[in-house]
Design a protein that fits this description.
Layout lengths: L12 H36 L3 H29 L2 H18 L6 H15 L3 H11 L2 H11 L2 H19 L2 H9 L1 H12 L13 H4 L6 H9 L2 H32 L3 H33 L3 H13 L2 H7 L3 H15 L3 H11 L5 H35 L3 H10 L2 H11 L3 H16 L9
Helix pairs in contact: 1-2, 1-3, 1-4, 1-5, 1-7, 1-8, 1-9, 1-12, 2-3, 2-4, 2-18, 3-4, 3-5, 3-8, 3-9, 5-18, 6-13, 6-17, 7-8, 7-13, 12-13, 12-17, 12-18, 12-19, 12-20, 13-14, 13-16, 14-16, 14-17, 14-20, 15-16, 15-19, 18-19
């Protein structure tokens, strides 16, 4: 958007850093509660006598289907009403349901509680994306959303580290309770301290003063889906998530079965690899994309395309070596490179949306990511592992993960293709945002 039209920001730099920080903490809680199940899968399997397919349903499908399908209607509430309120209620719900997982008596009750976690977390990401996009201007957006996305690796770090040692010392039930309850405290902090930014603030568009119209979910979906760059970014992100969620869900079981590691050892190793390596990758991905985009906006899709393509070959070493140390060292490279897509992909999506459809845009992207990634990735890998078990025995999961990892090259292709129409689509979005600010329909320019 034209910088000369921007309003003077009503927030100090200190407050903007605080707001971004507390939203990042919310995202950390999101991923702690989402991913702690992965480190507990083997104990749950042994205690409740479940199959790998059932574990795949618990870790992926049960959560992913509800998370993905409810994300758009909840995001519509965030686009029409208070984003802070939607975020607060959602955080309290998913944290409480995580704690309740510790009271599960079998597959059915654990499935019900995991569905509850998915319903709550559906209202976490989209309001936060929308608020950050109003706090920070387009040229800083990939960096800001990259910092926010540090919640992914840091949440996995805390979930694996705390979950692994709690499982080993106090049991999987206590682990759920201990990691779930802190989210209720964070929800209270959000309610009391976070401020709702004016929509369109970062582009100098007074959306709330000049326009009462809010695009419907259908028109927002149609507007974005007509943009080929968005379609390719969504598909590239979803295909990475297919691999990424399968890997994070099944890596603990793989290391336990194929390398004989204990829960505590696995939790510590994966916390460091994904938490620190992935965190560095997410941050650098956002910063690098913003810097490249100063000269060429295609930098925001080149970064994830290159990262996915480079990370693909290392999977062959990870899943075929019998050397535990080598497998763990090699795991750091795709952990670092793979997550570099998040800041750029989120920023492109927010820039292609108008201010009054930003939460919905984030939900549409997250729908694609989670319906393919969470909904299919872990359960597909579990099903392949079950199918290979009669032939390969305890190594069936090793080769199931190797097969899944091949999708990374497909992901890189879609990020590359997004660059062909990105510049034209950004101009379409700019014109639509100006129409929205003037109270005119956005779809006329779509």
């Amino acid at each position: 958007m034209p910088t000369e039209n921007r309003q003077t920001p009503p927030y100090s730099q200190a407050y903007l850093r605080y707001a971004l920080g507390i939203l990042c903490v919310v995202y950390i809680v999101n991923f702690v509660d989402r991913q702690v199940l992965a480190i507990l899968l083997q104990s749950i399997k042994d205690d409740l006598l479940l199959t790998d397919l059932q574990l795949g349903v618990l870790s992926g499908t049960a959560f992913g289907l509800f998370y993905a399908t409810l994300g758009i209607p909840i995001a519509r509430l965030a686009d029409r009403f208070s984003r802070k309120s939607v975020l607060t209620i959602s955080l309290a719900l998913w944290s409480g349901m995580t704690a309740l997982c510790g009271a599960a008596t079998g597959f059915a009750t654990l499935l019900l509680y995991r569905i509850g976690v998915g319903v709550g977390e559906a209202g976490g990401g989209p309001p936060a994306h929308s608020m950050i996009s109003d706090y920070f201007p387009p040229e800083k957006r990939a960096t800001a959303l990259g910092i926010f996305s540090l919640g992914v690796p840091f949440g996995i770090l805390v979930g694996f580290l705390a979950g692994g040692w709690l499982d080993q010392t106090l049991g999987w039930r206590t682990a759920f309770i201990v990691v779930g309850l802190p989210g209720l405290v964070v929800a209270l902090i959000v309610a009391l301290t976070l401020r709702e930014p004016p929509r369109g603030l970062s582009e100098g568009l007074d959306i709330q003063r000049n326009s009462n119209a809010s695009p419907t979910a259908g028109s927002a979906i149609a507007f974005l889906w007509r943009m080929r760059s968005f379609r390719h970014v969504a598909l590239g992100s979803a295909l990475y998530a297919f691999v990424g969620y399968a890997a994070t869900s099944w890596a603990p079981s793989f290391l336990a079965r194929s390398h004989g590691m204990t829960a505590g050892e696995i939790g510590t190793a994966l916390a460091l690899i994904i938490g620190l390596g992935g965190g560095l990758g997410i941050y650098l991905g956002g910063v690098l994309a913003d810097r490249l985009a100063i000269r060429n906006p295609l930098g925001r899709v080149w970064v994830p395309a290159g990262a996915q393509l480079l990370s693909f070959p290392f999977s062959f070493i990870i899943y075929t070596t019998s050397n535990t140390t080598l497998a763990l060292v090699m795991f750091t490279i795709p952990a670092f490179l793979g997550l570099m897509y998040q800041g750029p992909a989120f920023a492109v999506t927010q820039s292609l949306a108008t201010p009054k459809m930003r939460a919905t845009a984030a939900a549409i992207l997250l729908f694609a990511i989670n319906i393919v990634g969470l909904g299919i990735g872990p359960v597909f890998t579990g099903a392949v592992s079950d199918a290979l078990e009669p032939t390969l025995g305890g190594d069936s999961l090793r080769y199931a993960l190797l097969i899944t990892s091949m999708v990374l090259a497909w992901s890189a292709f879609h990020f590359y293709r997004a660059g062909r129409t990105l510049v034209a689509d950004l101009e379409t979005a700019r014109q639509a945002a100006e129409r929205e600010s003037a109270g005119l329909p956005t779809t006329a320019t779509g």
